[in-house]
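Duplicate of #3305? Posting structure anyway:
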């Protein structure tokens, strides 16, 4: 099983975090660690996931979310 850590910046709205977690789950990844920091109208997330699936699959789907501003 592969572990991946990435940073994501998104708009700070209640439903955005739920959408991000739903995409992670539906793409077959499991969250193993998550840190969330609020900065004015944005939230910065540092997420570690694990899966046997390709990480690019997850990044491409997260980038399609309208409230996601940046993925590193």
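Output from current build:
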């Amino acid at each position: 099983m592969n572990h991946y850590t990435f940073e994501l910046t998104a708009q700070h709205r209640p439903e955005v975090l739920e959408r991000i977690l739903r995409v992670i789950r539906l793409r077959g990844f499991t969250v193993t660690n998550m840190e969330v920091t609020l900065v004015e109208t944005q939230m910065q997330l540092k997420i570690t996931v694990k899966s046997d699936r390709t990480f690019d699959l997850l990044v491409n789907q997260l980038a399609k979310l309208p409230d996601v501003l940046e993925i590193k």
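Confirmed duplicate; merging threads. The longest strand covers residues 2-11. The two ends are 21 Å apart (CA to CA).
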